[in-house]
Design goal:
The protein is an alpha/beta fold and about 375 residues long. It has 15 helices and 13 strands. The longest helix is centred in the first third of the chain and has 25 residues.
Amino acid sequence: MSKNKRELRLVVAGGGTGGHLFPGIAIAKRVCQARPGTRVLFIGTDRPFEKEQVARVNFEHAVSGATGIKGLGWKKKLSAALRLPLSVMGCMVKLIRFRADAVIGVGGFSSGPVILAAWLLRKPVVLHEQNSVPGVANRLASRFAKRIFITFPESSTFFPENKCALSGNPVRSEILEAASFLEENKPATLLVAGGSQGASGINRAMIQDLSKFKSLEIKIIHQCGSQDLSEVQMAYETAGVDAEIHPFIQKMEEAFSQATLVVCRAGATTLSELMVLGKPSILIPFPHAADNHQERNARYLENEGAAQVILEPELTPGALAEAVGLLLKNRETLARQGHAARKLALPHADSMVADAILKLIKN
């Protein structure tokens, strides 16, 4: 049966965190819309968060067998390297059994063996890089890819120029839908979101400033992660600050829609959603991100007038509350930031990448 007649089979390589996972889901869903009946297999890590999110959209999931090496001692790095050939062989078996037509790599250590296996099997490979500074996996995989899509213009310096295209970062369809009916004249609402697993640095900054936040008389929605949930809840109760506190917000589009201002990390997925929604923000980059890519992501928005950046070491007591208070009092600045953010948005990234995948398969 020809590829045009049988169902299309797409493999998404990578994951582990929401920053890699959600763009992959968005691209895969767009391919499914273009080619009804498409089957999608995610090959990534065995982290419960990843498995849960993939299951929610009814895609299949498998584990690549790769091990991350960042931060490991030399013995564990050597052990991980020795296991790599077995991981590649295992991924080749998975691709053959799934009858994969193409592979889209979205980064993360788990994507490496899948990309190499696809290249050995002569399956077309497309990469998507979310951050301003590409991760090691995508840098190494670039030699095996037919096309490479980037989110920030400066990423092009890390890849072969003839393979690169600026697409932006795919965002979930729910976010795109939310952008079309944002509420106007809503009460001042601060959304604090440290990422899919929370952010202890941001949580600590909020806790130490709660007395000042209480005086601002604003609504607060705080995604704090499961690890800090008890501590954060206790701090809000003790300070007498009424807030919605969540370990993880499943329907982030609803929280974004309510937000007047967002305090968050500077992961590429979060920034892309802020841009599509035109939301002003205070960005606090994760200080230990590889190659300091979160600060470079954040500075891109700040330089375009779309956000304010505060580095984590600068979060002295009162600093965050003061910055939030100044912005909320100046609605003109908020409006300018939101307008600048929306101008940077590339809302059709998922379609651009999906079209490239379908064209490669057809050819």
